[in-house]
Every structure is written in structure tokens, then in C-alpha cells.
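Human:
If only I could read C-alpha cells as easily as an amino acid sequence. I am handing you a single protein, as its sequence and its fold in C-alpha cell form. I hope you can help me see how the letters and the C-alpha cells relate. Thank you; the sequence and its C-alpha cells follow:
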Amino acid sequence: MDLLEIKNLTTHFFTRAGVVKAVDNLSLRLQKGRILGLVGESGCGKTVTALSILNLVPYPGKIVSGKILFEGRDLLELAPDEMRKIRGAKISMIFQEPMTALNPVFTIGNQIAEVLTAHLGVTKSQAFDTAVELLRSVGIPSPEKRVHEYPHQLSGGMRQRVMIAMAIACKPSLILADEPTTALDVTIQAHILELLGQIQKEMDMAMVLVTHDLGLIAERAHEVAVMYAGLIVEQADTIELFFNPLHPYTRGLMASIPKPGEERRERLRTIAGTVPKLYDLPAGCRFSPRCEIKTGRCRTEPELIEIKRGHLVRCWEARQ
């Protein structure tokens, strides 16, 4: 049985400008111990998908329809207190900017201890001892000292390690990692990703890795779902997707990656245009205004269909 199964999830934001269709009829599956990469440009709905799983969509957003089955239970049907028991205990999230996710007026130790006392029922003293061990496990030096420090006293890399420590505190079955290395320099990024991969394997956790970095996806994910303007436009096993991308958007993303050995004076390829405003979507295929191979059929929106076993694509031309 799948650990996580999302069926026809639709999340909209009701604004003065119009209805923002952030996530539209999205379906995904994820098995225990597997990593699913959710990739796409900024504003395509990746983060809203992750927040929807935790039922934490901010106002004026609302989950309009769909099902989110976790261990066979529909999270959208749970009472608020039942959902609070799952957040942090069975499903954890690592946010892309730890400085805004961590509370600036509480020490690191207090914030980790709060997770442990809330979900595991341990004493505050036991929680602090565990917090020290968690900080040590994620590679923070002098954890006995750091546990008494505040977020502003730590570097960006250290704060991200604290977020990881909080996320794994209760040994969850699923981690949602939202651009976990965006705000970090390249060297620290590599350390954080290595740490995440190691913890994921040791604990046999499933992970949804939200990113715009295809290199990270190629290295870490077992499966990939490519999002564009609130829709999944292509989904496949990672190796299959990289060797046989079918959607023109996926191909455009691949082509924009710098290749080793290329002449520096050569300009990087780009995808013309920008992601449409999600409250003013084009008729038909949402990618058609930027697509180089569009035809008359693209005025009708294509469905996401399975072209070959496990490889789904939302494109009329890819069906040929």
C-alpha cells in the first residue's frame, strides 16, 4: 500500500484579483522509503502542494476538493486536534527559510523540546537531553552549548540543521522538504543534502523534495513530478524522465542546465515567456503560449495520460 496517495487535490486562493488556481486536480503516489521530486519554476504550486498535505494552506487559500490519503486515512477528513497529532510526529516539514520558520524569542533547545513533549509525552528534562543528541546527530558542534542559543546566533547552515533535527525528532514516516538548501551557499548545500540523504536512508522515511534544481532531483529522487501553472505536466521514474523527457516544458528545463565542457561564451538556453498568472490562465494547454511545438489542438487542455508504464505526460504532441 502507498504511504501517501493524493487524489485530485485542488487548492485555490480567493483574492480580489480573482481565483488563484495554485494546485489543480493533482494526483500523486509515494511509497515508504522513496523520494519524490516535485520540480518546476517559482509560482507553479509546489509549496502549496506541500502545505496542502499538512492542511496548512494560509488564508485566503482553501483546499476545494480532493483526498490526501496517508497510511490509508484521509487527512482532509480529520478533526483539527487529530491533524495536530500527525504534524511533526508522522509528517514533518523542512522549510526553505529557517530564520522565518524558527521562533526568534525561544532557544533552539526549547523549540526542539516542545516537539518532543507534545508528541512523545516525555518530561522537559528528557526532551532537552534528546535535543542535544539530535543536534549532535545532524552535525552541530558543541550541542550542549548550542541548545541554549537563539536562532539569530546561528549561521544559515546551522539553522537548517536545527530544522532537520526538529523534523526527525519523532522519527516521522514522511518528510516534506521545501527547497531545503535555497538560502545556503554551494558548499553548505552539499553538506545539508548529504545529511538529509543519510537520515532518509537510515530511518527509511519517504520524502517529497520540493525544488527547482534538476541536478538535485537527478541525484536524490527516485521519481519526479514536473509542475507547471498548478498542474502536473509530466511524471516518471527519475532515470526515465532524464533520458526520455516528453513534455516540451520538461525538455526546456533540461536544455537550460549548463553542460560540463560547454564554451563559456555560449548563451544558456531559456524558455521564452513567463509562467501565467494563476488567476488568468490561458485557454487550453497552460504551457501553449511558451511552447515551440504548439498546434491547433493545444487550444483544448490535454489530460495527464500514461504514455508508457509509469510515465505520464500532459501534452497532445507527446502522444504521437
Observations:
- The CA atoms of residues 302 and 314 lie 6 Å apart.
- DSSP finds eleven helices and twelve strands in the chain.
- The longest strand covers residues 18-30.
- Residues 4-77+179-188+206-259+268-319 form a domain with the Rossmann fold fold (CATH 3.40.50.300).
